[in-house]
Amino acid sequence: MNDALDEGRRVLFEGAQGVMLDIDQGTYPFVTSSNPVAGGVTIGSGVGPTKIQHVVGVSKAYTTRVGDGPFPTELHDEIGDQIREVGREYGTTTGRPRRVGWFDSVVVRHARRVSGITDLSLNSIDVLTGIEKLKICVAYKLNGEITEEFPASLNELAKCEPVYEEKCQDGQRILQV
C-alpha cells in the first residue's frame, strides 16, 4: 500500500463501527477493543499518518447505539420504534434491537475533531420520511449551561440534556434531498 501511495495511486481504507466506540476516544467502558477513529487505519495498515489526505466521516441521519452507555438523544417512543423498524436497526448477529435517537451534531463534531474528518457523508435520510417534526441536537445542556463541546467525562455525558432545533417536513420532500 505504501508503494501504491508513493506512486501517486489512490488507496481507500474503510473502517468499521463508530468513534464513540473507540477505546481511547469513545465512551469508555462502553467501547470496543480497537480504534475505529481514522487514526486506527495507520495502525492496521502500516501506512504513516502523513499519507492520509482525506477522511470521509460517515453518519446516519439519526443516531444508533448498541449496548449500554449514555445516549442523550435516545428516543423511547413511537418515533424511535418507527426509525428502528424502517432503518432495520437490529444487531446483525443477535437480532437485538439497537437503541435509536435523533441526529446528534455534538457527537459528529467530536468525531470530526478526533478523526480529522474532511468530508461528511450523511446516509439513511430516507428512513426519516413520514416523520413530521425532525429534531437535530445542536448542543447539550449541562448543569444549566449550554455547550456545543462533547463532555470530558462519562458522568458529565450522563447528565447532559439535548438542545434541539426542530425541522418540519411534508413527508415526501425528504426523498428529494
UniProtKB/TrEMBL annotation:
<dbReference type="GO" id="GO:0046040">
    <property type="term" value="P:IMP metabolic process"/>
</dbReference>
<keyword id="KW-0658">Purine biosynthesis</keyword>
<keyword id="KW-0436">Ligase</keyword>
<dbReference type="GO" id="GO:0000287">
    <property type="term" value="F:magnesium ion binding"/>
</dbReference>
<dbReference type="InterPro" id="IPR042109">
    <property type="entry name" value="Adenylosuccinate_synth_dom1"/>
</dbReference>
<dbReference type="InterPro" id="IPR027417">
    <property type="entry name" value="P-loop_NTPase"/>
</dbReference>
<dbReference type="GO" id="GO:0005525">
    <property type="term" value="F:GTP binding"/>
</dbReference>
<dbReference type="Pfam" id="PF00709">
    <property type="entry name" value="Adenylsucc_synt"/>
</dbReference>
<dbReference type="InterPro" id="IPR042111">
    <property type="entry name" value="Adenylosuccinate_synth_dom3"/>
</dbReference>
<feature type="binding site">
    <location>
        <begin position="124"/>
        <end position="126"/>
    </location>
    <ligand>
        <name>GTP</name>
    </ligand>
</feature>
<keyword id="KW-0547">Nucleotide-binding</keyword>
<comment type="function">
    <text>Plays an important role in the de novo pathway of purine nucleotide biosynthesis. Catalyzes the first committed step in the biosynthesis of AMP from IMP.</text>
</comment>
<comment type="pathway">
    <text>Purine metabolism; AMP biosynthesis via de novo pathway; AMP from IMP: step 1/2.</text>
</comment>
<comment type="subunit">
    <text>Homodimer.</text>
</comment>
<protein>
    <recommendedName>
        <fullName>Adenylosuccinate synthetase</fullName>
        <ecNumber>6.3.4.4</ecNumber>
    </recommendedName>
</protein>
<dbReference type="GO" id="GO:0044208">
    <property type="term" value="P:'de novo' AMP biosynthetic process"/>
</dbReference>
<keyword id="KW-0342">GTP-binding</keyword>
<dbReference type="InterPro" id="IPR001114">
    <property type="entry name" value="Adenylosuccinate_synthetase"/>
</dbReference>
<dbReference type="GO" id="GO:0004019">
    <property type="term" value="F:adenylosuccinate synthase activity"/>
</dbReference>
<feature type="binding site" description="in other chain">
    <location>
        <position position="96"/>
    </location>
    <ligand>
        <name>IMP</name>
    </ligand>
</feature>
<keyword id="KW-0460">Magnesium</keyword>
<feature type="binding site" description="in other chain">
    <location>
        <position position="32"/>
    </location>
    <ligand>
        <name>IMP</name>
    </ligand>
</feature>
<dbReference type="GO" id="GO:0005737">
    <property type="term" value="C:cytoplasm"/>
</dbReference>
<feature type="binding site">
    <location>
        <begin position="92"/>
        <end position="98"/>
    </location>
    <ligand>
        <name>substrate</name>
    </ligand>
</feature>
<feature type="binding site" description="in other chain">
    <location>
        <position position="17"/>
    </location>
    <ligand>
        <name>IMP</name>
    </ligand>
</feature>
<comment type="similarity">
    <text>Belongs to the adenylosuccinate synthetase family.</text>
</comment>
<feature type="binding site">
    <location>
        <position position="98"/>
    </location>
    <ligand>
        <name>GTP</name>
    </ligand>
</feature>
<keyword id="KW-0963">Cytoplasm</keyword>
<keyword id="KW-0479">Metal-binding</keyword>
